[in-house]
Amino acid sequence: MIKFYYSPAPNPMKVALLLAETGLEFEAVPVDTRKGEQFAPDFVKINPNGKVPVIVDGDATVFDSNAILLYLADKSGQFVPAIADSAKRGQMLSWLMFIASGVGPFSGQSVHFRHAAPEPKEYALNRFDFEAHRHFAVLEGHLANNAFMLGDDYSIVDMAFWGWARMMPFVLGIENPWEQYPNIKRLLDVVDARPASERVKEIVSAHEFKSEMDDEARRFMFPQNERLA
Predict the structure, then answer these.
(1) CB-count burial class (<10 Å; 0-12, 13-18, 19+) for 214
(2) Which of 36, 46, 117, 131 could bridge to 113 as Cys pair (CB 3.0-4.6 Å)?
(3) For all residues of the chain together, what is the average pLDDT?
(4) Which Pfam families match (predicted)?
């Protein structure tokens, strides 16, 4: 059985969604990052980078959310173009890596500088807010002409994006970004309506994660600040 190490953050939720969609058997193992459990020696043996998500599937250990999506989709033969379909496979890899290298990092930095960083932060927030919007605008334009990220086929690319799209109000600091991004909202609503999305909610609610961002949580979430002490 696959062991799935997770928290409620956007990246683990992508993997939870795919696991729920595929029907693969798995055990969900919570890792409370605000308690520093990602730095426990036993966990670092699984992922030396000290982050979730991670899966352990027999002899295979896979970390990084987008690598896990690709691994599980290929394993199950679902939600991903076949390797032999080079044109569609290339499109899938391009958009999947666009989300991995662009949407995720810039959204994460927008969240950090908007909600966590001390002043002065105007330059950094402007930089990452601009790039978050730019990446979302690229996806908005693509979805204007496509039902899903790969045309008519629901895939791991939609799941990868769903992890972040559901967080857009928090990422952008806008209560209702959907007037600006209606095609993203359409995709989000379609994915949210799938039974697998309800299964993701069950996975999250099965464990009570620490919600307080107290001094202990800040120490674990932002260890770089120790260098400023």
Answers:
(1) exposed
(2) 117
(3) 97
(4) GST_C (PF00043), GST_N (PF02798)
